[in-house]
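Structural biology now treats backbone shape like a language. To illustrate, our science desk offers a sequence and the tokens encoding its fold:
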Amino acid sequence: MTHKILQIRLFPASCTRYSFLLCSLAFIAVFCFSNPLLAGSVKDLKSQQISEILFNIKAYYVDDLPLTKSAEDAFNNQQVEMLLNQLDPYSKYLNENDLDALFNNTNGQYTGVGIEVKEVDDNITIVGVVKNSPAKKAGILAGDIIVNVNGTSTQTRSLKQVASLIKDDSFSTVKLTIKRAQYQRTLSFTVDRREINLESASSQLLDSGAGYLAINNFSNHTLHEVALQVAALKNDYRTPLKGLVIDLRDNPGGTLQSAVAVADLFLQSGTIVTTKGRYYDANQAYYAKRGDILKGIPIVVLINENSASAAEILAAALKDNKRAKVVGNQSYGKGSVQSLIPLGDGNTALKLTTAKYFTPAGISIEGVGVTPDVAIAQATLPQSNKAVIIKNEQNKNTPQFEHEILGDLQLVKAKQLLSMQ
């Protein structure tokens, strides 16, 4: 899975449109749970770019990699690629297209069909469909298995290869042939690519009188969206808000500033997160400013094994500051910070791990994750589409509601905890 948090600050390099630091890119045109080490080709790198890459790795990479002067002089494109492959999975070279996609994504936009794919039991499976996307309007569903893309079978293709087929812009539309449970024949869909605005947050008042807030990712707009959703829940005059469930399940991350700002909404004081690295500016501490938007109303945070990076920062900040109980599964454990460093004229860049982040308790969650206060395995209700909860709360008198809400054991536990406070 590609997990990400984005931290934007002026970088002491050439002043181009790409001169900032980050922790990772949030989405690509097809959401893809894969982990390619190199996002762009390095075969055409010029000697100046090679020198810049070596300099930045020596100066800023989170671990001190010994590179001798003679090795630097002898480095060529193939050796640079080998060097990049020795770095952690989140460090990579980005070409111009990758950069454009990165900035569109961190602004809550991307161009594509609107599906999230994952390899499940050797099948390329759609695990999420973006709201208001071409795929959603075409009738594609989570759980559909992709068997063919634009006439090319996916049977012997890797997840990365299938994602590339779907993103191939030589086709103005994407023809997907899928296998769906309970259908004997395959189904075909022709889907146009277009720019999609991603919603970071959605909410609903639960039947218990508590609010439900789903945060799907952390973009530059998430703070604004969360504040609006919480205000709407508080201003629902049917009943005073009794508590808030923040659902971070399957949230892969996003911008660091966004995670810090959202955490600050619910905290009166305390440390939110700290970062530590080899160079001076990599060492930062973020603190909550006075003012809790909920004025002490109890909070329960839901996490699972796919909650990562910025999502883990928020969960840990609320947990360690005793502001919320955390329910669910151990989170993913992505605790490193990446920096986006421009190369040459700024049309390409190096995404490099420059620091690790630590929870308010001083713990690194890298490779470990956030441990929930109440561990509950969730095997019944898939969380790739959180809209099902909101939909079912709006139609709670239907048999479908009773089956699916009762099947979401983590949400049931969250509501019980809130009712006890």
